[in-house]
Design the sequence.
């Protein structure tokens, strides 16, 4: 890293590179990252290690894809690497182009290099237009395109549209993604302690491991949220890895930990299971106000607390 | 009240009299009432009015009967008279004798005077031994016996065994109650603010009115208790009285309001319905230690609170 | 019973008499009872015994009062007397007059005879207009008035307005009931097997005893109804009588046992507790159509059954 | 397919090949597949297409991995390809060796070819012993090893131990999997209608899409199982793919659809959501008897049905 000398660690942002990836597009949405040093890494583990070990202020990582679901590598890393906190969320529309070395015609394409997730998202188009193609997997969308110039094993690559700014490729077809609404959700992760202030349009992420021997414990855990009117926008089970059938749950909640209903629900969950990881409360990418029933308003929680505190302290109620 | 001069109000205890009732037997179990002035009243309303208006320190009233269920007059009074607090609970075994004016033989009995609850509890015996009898209702068990000397309309009366200490009656039969385990539960009610200290063998009484328009609201209310491991020993519905089908619930909980699990459950209930009346936390009559699962221990609640407070304040977790 | 000769047993209807009671007013609402023999009895037990032992086709009994709640004697009798079925429901508005022997003035009244429930419902008026009065309990509203002529112990009686048709009394005050909307709900009980046909405006009554040793069993029982969208219009706990704190539940459900959602809920409840008494499905007194969410429609249940039957039988699905 | 002539379609089994994969090891556990034609395919989609289009009797596909969780490609294929049924389950312990072309020494290895899941499961060993290595992804574990002889880009490959039977490779290290208990769960999928008979040690798989607009619908769905004592051994959310945050659930239940409690739970789920796919009931790989509380026994369900059928038909109960 030749430029390490010019940048203090707290001005560095790690992301899954190289330049041109969707992750880089997400990082471009972060105002405070503009003009700082961006460090391209090869995988989520490397990005989080940069943060944990102080090489970077923050890392941008993919966490959910509208077609492929939760990004399991990210979820597993967040469940096991301690001391991390999500501080922001970003959405990047997912679209793909089919690119090739200049001069290649679509009819010539026999082997397509593509990251497995990208391949899954454009398989419909590929099966229709290149029924005989073979698939060669790549480690990133940009690497798929870059490989065209490395070993010549593939004839074309599935890549993000921005690839043309970085590589001398020719676009054989545009908009080859099967789902026009496809998007990937990214999070910015740092070692920050404390929690960003409430905006009214927040999300809270936690990872919860259920107590071992309890039948019905999943239900009991989910009730902690429903009984306080807290909506879940993501519920994903991930194997703990020690035995078949043992799972932890990655959960996104609508609201901020300082919303009374969220705070109280997290207390309930924590009592229920000591294995709760708080990943952070942060503004939603879509800035959409959280909706909830007025019976779960902050003041309802505060009134109840005042009422019962008065009873126990012996003060007169309601006067 | 000729003796009012000798007694300060805080030395007076009201009870459903006259001397000889089960209520008096309950009051005899209260150490601090011994040697004080006992005021015999005619009904629950009068007893509670004595307390509210400051004529008495406390009133002993029947609240549940193992055969007849909740004493509805008491439950309704506690739901509507403000400013009262249950401070103690007492159990009196219920047994009955059949008494008559001296010289009466069992074979002569045609009309039996009995309080309706006492009648219900000895009907089996009466139907077997006096198949042709008629029933004349009385306002109390002692009044039933006293009536034998008032108008001569009844030939015998159902009364508590202690009646022979107060009236010149002859016992025609003993142990005529149908259920040998029958008991009545009494509570001592005062204007006390604050709550007696925890003993580990406590009970908490509340009256809860459900929010109007919510289907499933009873279930949601009961879940506030079950999800914190709080057991109910009494659940009784009572009409609110304004329309057919509108009910409030009289509930006894195992535990003290200062037990974390009870405290938190009451917060949950209060958020859910603003119409919650806290009737008191007090030692159980049977002094039986409250049993609950260790996952609802106080320290579990405290640990969860510390954990989340640390997160929101930005302190490092778990160090 | 001089007219017994002219009436076959299946043309006899028992009711809490004498003539002039609210129960008689309820029986007047039953078309098929008109012109038949009506048998006046002294209490609920006698009325039900008439039915069980074949002396009467059916008995009219009070089951719920908008002010005083469930009629516990009725509920307990239905829980313990086997072989009975509710076949109809009737509502009688409850209003009271204060009556006296001709020539009595309100100012003269010192002792008021009243059935305890009637007394409870007019206590507000009595305490305001006759602050010094004493209460003498009666076994029925009509007997209260009749007693004026029997022993002269009471000066006035609380009675139903219709009393003037039966007794030579003078009305001292009208409309003395504290709640202008007060009503009593009556049910007609017979030995009928089978169930009256669905009308769309039906009610189903059951009595459920929870399994002994199960914490959370009340919640689990109530969920059987809520999870199928079956609303409860009555939930009343009654002591089983064998020990303090052991209760059974008297429940009225909106809907008919042949409504799929009610049928399935009752299956769920029965699996859960073998101590379920089915008291009957019958048209509601108010003829109000039962409202429920369309996702609990009969066809939803039928479709699910067809779907799963097809799977298990190996038939092709959905073709 | 030169041997198509000798094999009727119903004697062909598709599996993710080539020979030597864990999938082949699973297929070796199927008695009825022995001696039949085994068709090696390149991915799950191809395997299922073989079945749907009649080229194969059945296909063996991986469905869950103790380290990596549900195999999402399989889950998504089962959710979208109609007409399939799981008929058996098989467990294969997962272990890995590091192999290379003969003559290669561990110290020479710079690039490791490995299927992403295999790579994830041996990363601990690789990072310790080959800290500088690069990863080249492969489409299967066997292809990873085969690639050593194809283009020479990788120096070593992560492969199943059985690879030495198929390729002329040298084992550089054995037991390099990070988790000694790692296993993969496979299912055999066919077009069979009907359901294999109950064995008492069965599993049932379903895919459930929740109704759109219902908050709390996940909870309500899970209650269908818990209220009948049906345990879930797998709950995995998968994006439906049409919009961010829309999920379906892949669920494995303990028990057979012909177990009354499972049957009734599936009825409940189907009523709740018309989008339920029944994937099959089949013997568990581990042959472990399903445990459940006796209150969910078949006879409990049957008794309840008989009871209620008797009531509606008008037959006498319980006599």
Sequence:
């Amino acid at each position: 890293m030749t430029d390490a000398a010019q940048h203090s660690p707290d001005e560095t942002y790690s992301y899954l590179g190289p330049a041109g990836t969707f992750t880089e597009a997400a990082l471009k949405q972060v105002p405070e990252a503009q003009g700082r040093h961006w460090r391209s890494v090869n995988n989520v583990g490397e990005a989080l290690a940069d943060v944990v070990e102080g090489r970077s202020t923050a890392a941008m990582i993919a966490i959910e894809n509208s077609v492929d679901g939760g990004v399991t590598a990210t979820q597993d890393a967040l469940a096991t690497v301690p001391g991390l906190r999500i501080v922001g969320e970003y959405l990047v529309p997912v679209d793909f182009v089919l690119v090739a070395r200049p001069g290649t015609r679509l009819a010539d394409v026999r082997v397509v290099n593509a990251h497995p997730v990208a391949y899954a998202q454009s398989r419909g188009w590929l099966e229709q237009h290149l029924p005989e193609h073979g698939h060669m997997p790549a480690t990133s969308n940009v690497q798929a395109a870059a490989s065209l110039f490395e070993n010549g094993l593939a004839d074309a690559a599935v890549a993000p549209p921005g690839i043309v700014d970085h590589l001398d490729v020719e676009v054989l077809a545009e908009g080859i993604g099967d789902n026009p609404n496809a998007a990937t959700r990214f999070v910015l992760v740092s070692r920050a302690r404390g929690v960003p202030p409430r905006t009214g349009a927040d999300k809270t992420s936690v990872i919860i491991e259920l107590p071992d021997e309890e039948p019905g414990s999943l239900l009991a855990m989910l009730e902690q949220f429903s009984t306080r009117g807290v909506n879940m926008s993501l519920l994903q089970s991930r194997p703990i890895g020690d035995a078949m059938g043992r799972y932890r749950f990655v959960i996104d909640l609508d609201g901020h930990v300082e919303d009374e209903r969220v705070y109280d629900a997290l207390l309930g969950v924590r009592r229920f299971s000591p294995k709760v990881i708080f990943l952070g409360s942060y503004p939603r990418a879509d800035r959409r106000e959280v909706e909830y029933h007025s019976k779960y308003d902050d003041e309802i929680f505060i009134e109840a607390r005042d009422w019962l505190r008065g009873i126990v302290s012996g003060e007169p109620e309601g006067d």
Remarks:
- Residues 1-7 of chain B have pLDDT under 50 and may be disordered.
- Chain B has three domains: 9-94+182-193, 97-173, 195-311.
